[in-house]
Write a structure and sequence with these properties.
There is one protein chain. It contains 18 helices and 14 strands. Helix 9 crosses helix 11. It is α/β, with parallel strands linked by helices. The structure holds nicotinamide-adenine-dinucleotide. Nicotinamide-adenine-dinucleotide (NAD) binds next to helix 1 and helix 5.
């Protein structure tokens, strides 16, 4: 099938590459000239496992191409995806200017039937707005062209995006047009062989499904962080509690890790946007408000532990950070807890030596030049001259260090494990003080020594 994808970011690029891989002709469109130039020269703008090979193979074979030329892409495609960003507006609601901008652009150039598929995460009612915006421009042009607008929210996870796209848990399609659903069934057939993954519903339900999924996942994280804060105070180990509750199949093991708060480009903005949507219809979201409030505090948790250990005297101290991206296997720094920590450490007069396996460039871009922030070449280099180590992102490469070497490298011999990746006993056996999240040690409890 002939496909155009507007927005060549995490979602658009991965979707484009996967659709090309299974035999479609795909044009990815973006307004970012440098991004498109880079992609045409084989440079992938983001780190995502497996993506580079996939893009390169399909680019070279000619089934995937990149352009800033929207009219050509619109003229070419039977199916047009909108996969542009929906960042938070000043009040936290989703800013639809990019989505509606693409709708207008499609209206300006459409000359044949096309299915317009909204893949961006958008508030309930956006498909109607896209339809109206597109239709208005067609009317201004005085042309009559049939089109359908479908809601097809994306559920891929950064770090696993290619796998998620190739083997989705579900393909949610919101539409009441049989013609559009037929086209999408055909397009997604290669991803739908093993069992029926397509969930058909009305547009509004599809739009809400995406927010419901992210809000539920964010709730699980804040819930566990709240329990971790209780565990810390009562001398329990949240890691034991986690395994204890996860074994109940009604609860399950996934997504119940305590940590230093959720970040990334989706959960923070989507929880907020759902709250705003609810507010607009006169409903106040008590659970979601609490989820956000817990998360806000939790992002300050590592700094709180570090400041408490050093009794507030952080000026001149050097803290090594392992990990900067908001989660492993991505270089995405949007809303990353590392940013909150770095800001607080710098305000307290500390120096930072940070290492991340993939996010260095992106971190340098978002944090900017700062005399007290050094980006180290590897995990060991980050320890050079450091008083303490903080684990910020649980990249696999950090899980099993030589604790004896770590003890030699650290001046103060203390580790702040924001992701609970270490066994406290192994760390302490090397003579290093250990602080985790909710591990009953952050308040001095001698019986835990
Ligand atoms: N990142 C994720 O993990 C993820 C997962 C599921 C859903 N989503 C949702 O998908 C949407 C896209 O997210 P993303 O992370 O891929 O965003 P992104 O910021 O990585 O990419 C968006 C791209 O759209 C481009 N763009 C803006 N206006 C354009 C226009 N008029 N024409 C063409 N391109 C244009 C931007 O230049 C940018 O390259 C958002 O609504 C997001 O909430 C994201």
């Amino acid at each position: 099938m002939r496909v155009a994808i507007f927005g060549t970011g995490y979602v658009g690029l991965v979707t484009g590459a996967c659709l090309a891989e299974v035999g479609n002709q795909v044009i990815c469109v973006d307004i970012d000239v440098a991004k498109i130039e880079g992609l045409n020269e084989g440079r992938i703008p983001i780190f995502e496992p497996g993506l580079e090979d996939l893009v390169e193979r399909n680019r070279v074979s000619g089934s995937l191409c990149f352009t800033t030329d929207a009219p050509t892409a619109i003229a070419f495609a039977d199916i047009i995806f909108i996969a542009v960003g929906t960042p938070p507006d000043e009040d936290g609601s989703a800013d639809l200017r990019y989505v509606l901008g693409v709708a207008r652009e499609i209206g300006e150039h459409l000359a044949h039937y096309a299915v317009v598929v909204n893949k961006s995460t958008v508030p309930v009612g956006t498909a109607d707005k896209v339809r109206a915006g597109l239709g208005k421009v067609l009317a201004e042009r005085g042309v009559e062209v049939e089109f359908d607008v479908v809601s097809n929210p994306e559920f891929l996870k950064e770090g696993d995006a290619v796998k998620d796209c190739m083997k989705p848990d579900r393909i949610v399609i919101g539409s009441d047009s049989a013609r559009a659903v037929r086209a999408l069934k055909q397009l997604y057939a290669p991803f739908n062989r093993n069992h029926e993954r397509m969930v058909l519903m009305d547009e509004r339900s599809a739009e809400l499904t995406k927010y419901a999924a992210n809000a539920m996942l964010a709730t699980k994280i804040s819930f566990m962080n709240e329990l971790a804060n209780i565990a810390e105070r009562v001398g329990a180990d949240i890691e034991s509690v986690r395994v204890g509750i996860g074994s109940d199949p009604r609860i399950g093991y996934s997504f119940i890790y305590p940590g230093i708060g959720y970040g990334g480009s989706c959960f923070p903005k989507d929880v907020q946007a759902l709250g705003r949507t609810a507010g607009q219809v006169g409903y106040s979201t008590r659970i979601l408000d609490a989820v956000e409030a817990v998360n806000y505090d939790q992002k300050g948790k590592l700094f709180e532990l570090i400041a408490r250990h050093f009794e507030g005297r952080l000026a001149g101290r050097t803290i090594a950070l392992w990990g900067l991206s908001f989660k492993p296997n991505t270089d995405d720094m949007r809303e990353a807890p590392s940013r909150t920590l770095i800001k607080s450490l710098l305000e307290a007069g500390a120096k930072i030596r940070a290492f991340d396996p993939e996010a260095r460039e992106e971190a340098q871009r978002v944090i900017g030049e700062h005399a007290d922030v050094v980006f180290a070449d590897d995990a060991h280099d980050a320890l050079n001259g450091a008083d303490a180590l903080a684990i910020v992102t649980e990249w696999k490469v950090f899980w099993s260090p030589d604790f004896a070497k770590l003890a030699d490298a650290l001046k103060e011999k203390v580790v702040f494990d924001g992701r609970n990746i270490f066994d406290p006993k192994a760390v302490e056996a090397a003579g290093i003080a250990y602080y985790g999240i909710g591990r009953g040690r952050s308040v001095a409890r001698p019986e835990f020594a």
